[in-house]
């Protein structure tokens, strides 16, 4: 088996399960092949006058058999590459929020420069038969830069966020350059069939690509394979976290506090793609239209701080604080508050307990590549008495999780009705839906995802 070289914006120690899904997914193959994981160190070095000392410095570290190679960035590069272009242009447009994109700021040059820097640092570490797997929207042009330096290895890309259809994608002034860069890969992985169809439509209508069968498209003098690989979670790991002391304690505390009430749960990064204001409005509509839920249903909404230096995120925070205060003011009682809004990250070890205690989970993004919280909620349930997942049809996960209650999060009344249905769903129906959902997330877990992707990359023709 070839050595795996993984590249992502952030690098984690794969021995640390708490480092998250990607570390778990890649850790197995990285370990088995004595692999290399390359990316930004997470460190920003201040630019000194007349130069950028420290920028681009390569740090090598060993984590068992895996080598971690990371590069520092200067403040200017970080701000323009990460905040400016990746999160100020690509993130909003790829999540269909053209209105929030800042096309004029001129960050593209730095986005490109940082990708060139990464290519220069990575290329000398590569061996001829390495298999390279590059992750996410920060690094779209990295393969093209590596190719320009003469790298002929198999290179795959996985887009963790959605790919919008051509009328939205083409609002990015540099869309052709970005899509041409994608054709430098041998395999492009998407989260959903919908994303894959958008790619195929773009390739055919804008780049004149011909589908060549076997998932292959030819354009810009290269042939690329494109497929959907929905990412999963490590179900066993989440289930075993749920048996741990902290999860149990959280579950018992929640059950004691909410014995007479029904708990609804939302757990998200604070991001405008997650549909949080719409979710609060739907919950408000539930209280207005189904008064039996007053003094009873409680929504715990946890929103972890994220990208706070980007304006749209700071605006969202103020909006959510205002809305939850207004709803609590309108409906709250001396002994009951409808919304508990928490602007913090919850410990991962407590999360399964919280999920298990919640009768209903509200996973209602306006747009999401996949959404792993939906899968974590299913994994955490008691199969004998499971809760109900209310899931946005605009999350990539909706293609797989058909037995959830699928909603259109823009339809506030419709979402309120679905929440009401979830709160009153009979046990037998909850059990049968949960059983199918659990089978699904087990069959396509995170290990399946990386195996399938790497198998396809190994099989794909080069160029
Ligand atoms: P995204 O990658 O856009 O943040 P996902 O749902 O795909 O969304 O993945 C989020 C991951 O981060 C999940 O594993 C989830 O448990 C975790 N997470 C999200 N919000 C929180 C939070 N408020 N506290 C703790 N963990 C969180």
TrEMBL record:
Residues that span the membrane, as ranges: none
Protein name: Trehalose-6-phosphate synthase
Protein family (similarity comment): Belongs to the glycosyltransferase 20 family.
SUPFAM superfamilies assigned: UDP-Glycosyltransferase/glycogen phosphorylase
Function according to Swiss-Prot or TrEMBL: Probably involved in the osmoprotection via the biosynthesis of trehalose. Catalyzes the transfer of glucose from UDP-alpha-D-glucose (UDP-Glc) to D-glucose 6-phosphate (Glc-6-P) to form trehalose-6-phosphate. Acts with retention of the anomeric configuration of the UDP-sugar donor.
InterPro entries for the chain: Glyco_trans_20, Trehalose_OtsA
Organism (species): Cupriavidus cauae
Keyword field contains Transferase: yes
GO MF, one example: alpha,alpha-trehalose-phosphate synthase (UDP-forming) activity
Lineage: Bacteria, Pseudomonadati, Pseudomonadota, Betaproteobacteria, Burkholderiales
Oligomer status and interactors: Homotetramer.
Annotated pathway: Glycan biosynthesis; trehalose biosynthesis
């Amino acid at each position: 088996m070839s050595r795996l070289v993984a590249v992502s914006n952030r690098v984690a120690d794969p021995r640390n399960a708490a480092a998250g899904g990607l570390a778990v997914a890649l850790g197995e193959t990285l370990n088995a092949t004595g692999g290399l994981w390359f990316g930004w160190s997470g460190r920003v070095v201040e630019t000194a006058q007349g130069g950028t000392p420290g920028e681009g410095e390569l740090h090598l570290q060993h984590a068992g058999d895996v080598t971690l190679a990371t590069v520092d960035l200067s403040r200017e590069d970080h701000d323009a590459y990460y905040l400016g272009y990746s999160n100020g242009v690509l993130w909003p447009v790829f999540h269909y929020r053209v209105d929030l994109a800042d096309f004029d700021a001129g960050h593209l040059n730095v986005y490109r420069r940082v990708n060139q820097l990464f290519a220069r640092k990575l290329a000398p570490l590569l061996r001829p038969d390495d298999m390279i797997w590059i992750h996410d929207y920060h690094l779209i042009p990295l393969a093209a830069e590596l190719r320009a330096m003469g790298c002929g290895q198999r290179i795959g890309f996985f887009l963790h966020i959605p790919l919008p259809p051509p009328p939205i994608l083409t609002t990015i002034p540099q869309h052709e350059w970005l899509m041409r860069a994608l054709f430098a890969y041998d395999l492009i992985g998407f989260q959903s069939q919908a994303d894959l169809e958008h790619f195929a439509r773009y390739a055919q209508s804008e780049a004149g690509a011909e589908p060549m069968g076997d998932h292959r498209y030819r354009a810009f003098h290269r042939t690329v394979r494109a497929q959907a690989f929905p990412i999963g979670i490590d179900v066993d790991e989440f289930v075993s976290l749920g048996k741990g002391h902290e999860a149990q304690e959280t579950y018992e505390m929640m059950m004691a506090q909410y014995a007479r009430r029904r708990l609804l749960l939302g757990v998200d990064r604070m991001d405008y793609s997650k549909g949080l204001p719409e979710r609060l409005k739907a919950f408000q509509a539930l209280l207005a239209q189904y008064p039996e839920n007053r003094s009873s249903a409680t929504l715990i909404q946890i929103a972890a701080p994220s990208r706070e230096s980007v304006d749209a995120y700071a605006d969202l925070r103020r909006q959510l604080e205002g809305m939850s205060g207004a709803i609590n003011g309108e409906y709250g009682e001396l002994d009951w508050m409808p919304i508990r809004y928490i602007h913090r990250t919850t410990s991962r070890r407590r999360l399964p307990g919280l999920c298990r205690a919640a009768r209903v989970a509200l996973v209602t993004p306006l747009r999401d590549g996949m959404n792993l919280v939906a899968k974590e909620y299913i994994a955490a349930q008691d199969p004998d008495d499971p809760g109900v997942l209310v899931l946005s049809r605009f999350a990539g996960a909706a293609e797989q999780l058909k037995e959830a209650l699928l909603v259109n999060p823009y339809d506030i009344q419709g979402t309120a009705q679905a929440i009401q249905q979830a709160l009153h769903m009979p046990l037998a129906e909850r059990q049968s839906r949960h059983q199918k959902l659990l089978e699904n997330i087990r069959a396509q877990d995170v290990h399946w995802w990386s195996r399938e992707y790497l198998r396809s990359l190994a099989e794909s023709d080069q160029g």
